Give the backbone structure.
Amino acid sequence: MLTALVFLPAVAAGILLCLPRTTPPLLVRAVWVAVSSVEVALVLAVWAGHGSGGGMTHETRAVWIPSAGIGYHVGVDGLSLPLLALTAVLFWACAVHALRMTRRVRLLAALFLFLETTCLGLFAALDLILFFVFFDLSLVAMYFVIAGWGHRPGAPRAAVKFFLYTFTGSLALLLGFIGLYLAAEPHTFDMVALARGEVTAGRPLYGALVLLAVGAGLAIKTPTVPFHTWLPPAHTEAPAVGSAILAGVLLKMGTYGFLRIAMPLLPDRWREFALVFVVVGVVSVLYGALVALAQRDFKRMIAYTSVNHMGYVLLALGAAAGSAGTADGAARLAVSGAVFQMVSHGLLTGALFLLAGVLYERGRTYDMTAYSGLAARAPVFAALTGVAVFGSLGLPGLSGFVAEFQVLAGSLGPRPLATVLAVLGLLLTAALLLGALRRVFLGPLRLPVAPGTGRPFPDVRRHEIAAVVPLLVLAVALGLFPRVVLDAIEPFSRTLLGLVGR
Amino acid sequence: MSGAADGAVTLMTAMDENPAGLLPEVFLAASAVLGLLAGAWLPRHRQWLVGAGATAACGAGIVAAAVAGDGPRTVFGGAFAVDPVTCTARVVVLSGTLLVLLLSFVPFRSHPRESELYVLIQLTALGALMLAGAQDLLLLAAAYLLTSVPSYTLAGFRKDERGTEAALKFYVTGALLGVVMLAGITLLYAAGGASSYPRLAAALPDAPSALVAAGVVALSAGVLFKAGGVPAHFWVPDAVQGSAPPVAALLTTVPKVGALAALWRLTAVPLAGADGPWHTLMAVVAAASMTLGNLAAFFQTDVLRLLAYSTVSQVGYLLLPLAASGRGGQAQSALLYYLAAYALTNLGAFAVVCALPRARLLAEYRGLWRARPWLVLWLVVCLLGLVGTPPTAVFLGKLEVFTTAVDGGAGWLAVLAAVNTVASLFYYLRWVRAACSGTEPCAAARAVVGPAAVVACAAAGASVVLGVAASLVLPLSGGPLAR
């Protein structure tokens, strides 16, 4: 079932590619939305089958390349499930958002469905090489999305920058995986087998180098300061749906890797170098917020707030290592908060980028100084953006608050100074997001004057509402009833901390 | 007792002069000779029959190689080894030659010297096969000449300005390094008192190490020339750019397979026990090849030159198992698997170039996407394959050679190779970007060579299949070598 969930979109993509060029776009879009909806349903079915206990379910193991220690091994636990669900929902939203699109829709649909397979596969993979395969293929697909559908003329450059940077990360990751493989006896890439004990025990330098490679690779993907420079141009130039997936799903691959690979497979080294990750996390939080404060470009601003939000995740993971062995729930709170933050950020930032697409489509620019008083002309758009922004800055009642509260409460005990600094970041984000909201939506009405934009600024259309509203509803629902997801996450946090603290 | 057994073994190997052991080579040589004779008599529009014969010989050779198996043994007085290395090299070389022949049919159809082309291609491939199987320094030298001389002619086959210059450069470099190689063989003979590998393996550990080192360095110069590795790579860009694309595909693939197999055999048999800086030498050559090849490829505008430098950098990765061959079987299967993957993917990329005879510059690929989307897809698969994107075969090859390098204590080399891989992505992407951009359909796409496009499709597909189904292939090539 999990395998079907993962590969169904790729099969659909292959079929779409084989259709003749004269296929009406309507049919293509219908297939795209239908497959995405089936994926959402399949994820829900997998979640229902997971039950309330911890541990792996839906495991599938198959021999792939035994002589190289590579196997096909997938499964889900409390970490993968929320992310699989997030992926399915976001891809569904993108499919709906693109419903009015006409330009080369068949290729875009095929690419997105293929990308969905790589993302779902990555979150289900339990073999390092399988993980890597999906990791790399997601880069390839995203490269073509940015290069092919981005805003010219900067798109090809940004796409190459994105590909080169993240490919560097993936090769660092590969070297780290090779290090883990060689340290294990017998040699294997299987994560479950590797998590049975610290394989680099007794070789601290070797372990540190492996953690350095894995950590650097994941940090580039996350991205954290100082590896974040690929992110703003990639986001600015990507089409709205591409940005939504990039921020909502692809960034999570980095933090997911920390939780799935770096922490359980290298627990001793993780504890030893936890401070590094705390510092990197806090620097990302503050730097991301400060740079976002200085942006005039709406998308760049959200991109930098992503750096800020991912910083909390890293802070929580670093802090959790400090108190992993102790009996109090602080570490568990931090880890659960980190996972929750990933889901919450995916929903809210995905919605924000889709809304940014709405803005661009009407005004042909992301420059916030070009807009003013939009709330009068487009009240629904203003309301939706407002909800997403308030969620993003952590207003109670929305998912962002639950996530950030848990992260900060869990980190305060072991790392008080870092946590206090991170709270500063929270204030900065609140200030900058509210400032942006005021600048664009309040005040006298002003629209950008550029060729071809003379038309009035119409409010959001039905398909745009249909794409964004479910994301925001989920964000509110998770803010009000976080237990639904936390019940799945918490057993995972316990297991993980058991591994890290042993 | 042991002496008697040794005597019996020597007698048996001395007796084994059954040509059946060399069946693939015999097929190729016979078809080349027959082709030469037939070419003199056939009318020009029937000369394709020679090519058909060559294709059949390659096909039969592949079957014979697969049937003969890889049980380690030597034939012809211990001069030629039949073992997993030879077997894999036979399959890869013959398949590569087959693809090159398929690429050559259309551009050389009714060419005044059509049959000669096929004969020269077969002789080059035959030389590569001999390089891979040579178990004796003198046979190695003969194989070097056998694969070099036809390639010089092939490089200048079009007799135009560029081709002549390429052939001359190729020939001068080859002649010089050939002599250096012969000098190396002489030194090794002086040091070990024998030219056959097993005897050298026994004698070299006790020989004066300076003599051995000098001999080995000189010998490797010749083999590296065939492999197209730094510092013997100067001929590669000119020969590739100056010759017809199918010939360029041959020159960068087939002799390389033979040369790397020969290098591996040298590492594993005669130099296994000799202390000396052999692994360090290979590590330096590997590092230099991948780095210089990549740096030179960065801003090339001619696709053939770009591919030429990319093949130089690929030699660097291919040399990783030699630089760190602490663990025989695994390093060997890594090398052989990578060789097969590289040959397939590289031929796929060249096939795309052959399919578009009017597009020579990167800029001329603009808009290809509009005109020939499937061809772009094959190109993307092959180029990303050369980078090492999963699940193509080169990815697994790279994974294996990186693992071997880290395992063999050459972690720095693996890191350098990873950095180079990222760098190589840049210039492959320039090509991909050109092919995928542009709003007007590309002019060069009006004349597409059909068979070449089919070969590109087959190679791209096969490189993915080889990567995904590697479990069927990978264990085949790790067996022991003949001694």
Residues 330-363 of chain A form the longest helix (34 residues). Residues 9 and 84 of chain A are 14 Å apart (CA to CA). The first strand of chain A starts at residue 57 and ends at 65. Residues 273-455 of chain A form one domain.
